[in-house]
Amino acid sequence: MTKLNWGMIGGGKDSQIGPAHRLGASVDGDYAFVAGALDHIPENGRAFAQELGIAADRAYGDWREMLEGERNRPDRVDLVTVATPNSTHFEITKAFLEAGFHVLCEKPMTMTVEEGEEIVAVAKKTGKICAVNYGYSGYSLVRHMKAMVARGDLGKVRVVVSEFSHGHHADAADAENPRVRWRYDPKQAGISAQFGDCGIHALHMASFVTGQEVEKLSADFVSAISSRQLEDDAMVNFRMDGGAVGRLWTSSIAVGRMHGLTIQVFGEKGGLQWSQEQPNQLFYTPTGGRKQIIERGEAGLSPEADRSSRVTIGHAEGMPLAFANIYTDIAEAIRADKQGRPIDKAADIFPRATDGLRSMVAVHAAVKSAKENGRWVDAYPPSLR
């Protein structure tokens, strides 16, 4: 199998997310890491790219140089990952899509709804993949949850409860730490902090698992540390287009919570519960029955779960392997396109530009709702109705 050529923008030596992308892209041998513009300081980016084995002529100083350098190469990159600061995602993603590249963009895909609409339109016009890295949807048992809901194991879904709460920004004395401060600065983070950063992961997870989309929402935001301009805790109630009711809590001041991404789904016939910190177990309770533990890697799971599990049962698979499943799905989509064949259905579930757009609409709706004392606000993109 010929490897696909892969390039990365951002994700440099001091990046929190860069290593997870590089690990994820390398796990299954689908990609060769051949190009990169890895740092906002050009010389640092070039040096680090070469440390990682990228040839000097493809170790670029910035994304524009990379776009021009790759555009006309016969061996140009098949997929570009955008892992730069949030405010740059739109410009870079749009430019590479328009130049005919497939793109995997970190979340949030854009800063505004209008930008999100434009990316969806460009991806549709060019026919290129624009994936968005809601990487937690790559976990094997999250995909099995989705399959269980889709095949009717829970019956009609009534309620979904999703959380992403941690306590790592709870110390007011740490407010001036530059790694913390930017998240609550509207000039750098946009109109929302905690909901826009972590809450949209929880919201996407709710839609991914249930197969339903958010129609309207009501939000309550608080800045528990008063010096912050943006929220550090949020509660969002939402209604979905398939009739499910949603409850979402996200916080950065929840002392004692380490990562805190969990999802529970309650239906007519039973309930499911999964936590990202214990990703090997999925708890399933049929109505009137006993709680059961479904183990990642066990026999008889769904094709979606089997395809996204590599390590034998009883051994943990972590976040980089969840990212790897997104990369493997995209590789299958690219190869299917090149070969003129249908994509494997079990791989055709990775998040796309429409998911990025839905998240941005939800962020803006939640901010508006919070400012209006929790008034219910439409959160469904008009262009997707």
Question: Please, could you describe this protein's structure?
Answer:
- With 385 residues, the protein is α/β, with parallel strands linked by helices.
- The chain folds into two domains: 4-132, NAD(P)-binding Rossmann-like Domain (Rossmann fold), CATH 3.40.50; 139-313 and 355-378, Dihydrodipicolinate Reductase, domain 2.
- The protein is 35% helix and 22% strand.
- It is built from twelve helices and 14 strands.
- It has helices spanning 18-26, 42-51, 63-71, 89-98, 113-126, 140-150, 178-181, 186-189, 194-210, 303-307, 319-339, 353-371, and strands spanning 4-10, 31-37, 79-83, 102-105, 130-132, 157-165, 214-222, 233-240, 245-251, 261-267, 270-275, 281-286, 292-295, 377-378.
- Strands 13-12-11-10-6-9-8-7-14 form a nine-stranded mixed β-sheet. Strands 2-1-3-4-5 form a five-stranded parallel β-sheet, sandwiched between helices.
- Strand 11 and strand 12 form a beta hairpin.
- Helix 1 (18-26) crosses helix 11 and helix 9 (194-210) crosses helix 12.
- It is globular, with a radius of gyration of 20 Å.
- 50% of the residues are buried.
- The model has no long low-confidence stretch (mean pLDDT 96).
